[in-house]
Amino acid sequence: MLRKQLGQMFSMPLDDVRCIFMEGAGCYGRNGHEDAAADAALLAKAVGKPVRVQWSRADEHGWDPKGPPTPIDLRAGIDSSGNVAAWMGEFFWIRSPGRMQNTFANECFIDELAAVAKTDPVEFRLKHLEDARGIELLKRAAALAKWDTRVSPKPRQSGDVALP
């Protein structure tokens, strides 16, 4: 696909486009490789020889194309035992690599459901997980984070300052 995109960008036949893959750092979701490749192609054309472009993390987050906001509507029902009895979600607009905004929305919503069920958010998740690897991962993450088991939101204590 990169060759095709670069061919279109330069109005060149596909057979005249040569891409050389260079191993780079891994990432979660998107690593800007198409954008870095387009930058390299533009620079190579300008200087008349191959170039390598490698973005730093700051470059990637500061200059990569951002998608538009994604309206997300989530609804659920919880039974009297605190179990999720129904779940419905609608996600509009953009599909992103890794669908990070979807994951963020779902995880925030699970926190809200745990609060309605008056259950610790980690315990709530564990109650609804069946995958052994997922259960192990969540338990390890909670241990590493030194998770303070409690019902959320955490009740205010004397001396807490309310933010406007």
Strand content: 5-15%
Radius of gyration: 23 Å
Q: Give the distance, in angstroms, between the N- and C-terminal Cα atoms.
A: 49 Å
Biggest sheet features? 2 strands, antiparallel
- The shape is elongated
pLDDT average, as an integer?
Answer: 84
User: How many strands?
Assistant: 2
Notes on the structure:
Helix content is 42%, strand content 9%. The chain is mainly alpha-helical. It has two domains: 62 residues, no CATH class; 73 residues, no CATH class. A two-stranded antiparallel sheet has the order 1-2. The protein is elongated and about 65 Å long. 5% of the residues are buried.
Write the layout of secondary structure elements.
Layout: H1 2-10, H2 33-47, H3 57-63, E1 72-78, E2 84-91, H4 100-116, H5 121-128, H6 132-144
Antiparallel strand pairs: 1-2
Structure at a glance:
The protein is mainly alpha-helical.
What brief labels describe this structure?
mainly alpha, 2 domains, two-stranded antiparallel ribbon, 9% strand
